[in-house]
Amino acid sequence: MLELKLVKESLFLNVLEAILDLVAVASVSCSSTGLKLQAMDAKGVAFISLLIPAKEFQFYHCDKDLSMGIAIGDMVEAIRSADKDGTITIKASDENFRNITVSIESPECNETTSFSLLLVTLKRFCIPELQGLLKKYDACVQMPSVDFMRICKYLSNVDGDVDISTIDKGIRFFALGKCGCLNVKYMQPEKATDIDISVQAPVSLTLDLKYMNSFAKVSALSNQVKLCLSKGQPLVVQCKIGQKTKSRIIYLLAPKIKG
Amino acid sequence: VRKQSQITAFFSTS
User: Fold this and answer.
1) pLDDT digits 0-9 by tens, A160-173
2) How far from A12 is each of A18, A78, A100, A108, A234, CA to CA, in Å?
3) Residue A244 DSSP symbol
4) Less Cβ crowding at N or C end of chain A, within 10 Å?
């Protein structure tokens, strides 16, 4: 049986809200240690992996490992109507493993709304072990998420693709659209401690811009974001969620390749 | 000309 409880204004829900423009259904695995969510966008271009340890929830109990396909779009839609201080309880039982129950309790505890959400069938993906994969990556950029968001905002003025390339002591974002082009150079400053650009080998990736803007939304939930690039490999964008938590979100974005 | 690769090309399914 699984039971987890959270307040409406929790980070978990904010994260779900932020990923909804990319995905509507997700594979959610729960164990005694916490919750993992994996989802791929409808076009099969981006992949999201979210990890939230059990202690981040107001209440968390899972006595048996569970894996389920959840229409998170429908779930978030229902939760949106709840009072902002309301408490949300999500339950799945072993006896009837075809749906989950989401209950919303008002702050005064005088009103409870429950709805049953049918589970969906989804493929599970075996992604390579990420820390091992990233050791082989050519370049990593740790930067404040406000910088990343600003760069994505600049890029959103151009409609098309973005090339992210390593340059001497930094990286370059270059976008070419119908109305012109945009060039952002982001360098390693001499003193700042919250920027760390490490390049093992030169690399350049071409990526679909619209996904970058979705990624920027989630990085708003964290101070720092890390981008990792490697030739012919997906761009990895990872960030911790919140300040003192071990929750983290990782995006993988497939590059454009020579056709 | 560049074409979009699929993310599934980078990992297997089960």
Assistant:
1) 899 999 999 899 99
2) 10, 15, 17, 22, 25
3) S
4) C
Nearest residue of B to residue A206, measured between CA atoms: B2
Helices vs. strands in chain A: H and E counts, helices first: 5, 20
Chain centre distance of CA A159: 23
Tokens representing residue A15 in the block: 């994260």
- Which H or E element spans position A197? strand A196-199
Helices marked H in A106-203: 130-135, 145-156
A63 with A1: CB under 8 angstroms?
yes
- A136 interfaces chain B, CB cutoff of 8 Å: no
- Please give the interface size between A and B, counted as residue pairs whose CB atoms are below 8 Å apart: 57
**Angle, vertex CA A227, rays to CA A139 and CA A216, nearest 5:** 160
List beta partners, residue A125. Answer: B13
ipTM for the complex shown: 0.88
For the residues A200-216, what does the mean pLDDT come to?
92
**Could you tell me which residues come within 8 angstroms of residue B14 by beta carbon, excluding any fewer than 6 positions away?**
A123, A124, A125, A126
pLDDT tens-place string over residues A80-103: 888 788 899 999 987 778 999 999
DSSP H stretches of helix in A96-208: 130-135, 145-156
Phi, psi values for residue A241, rounded to 5°: -105, 125
Per-residue confidence band for B14, with pLDDT thresholds at 50, 70 and 90: very low
Interface touch A125/B10, C-beta < 8 Å: no
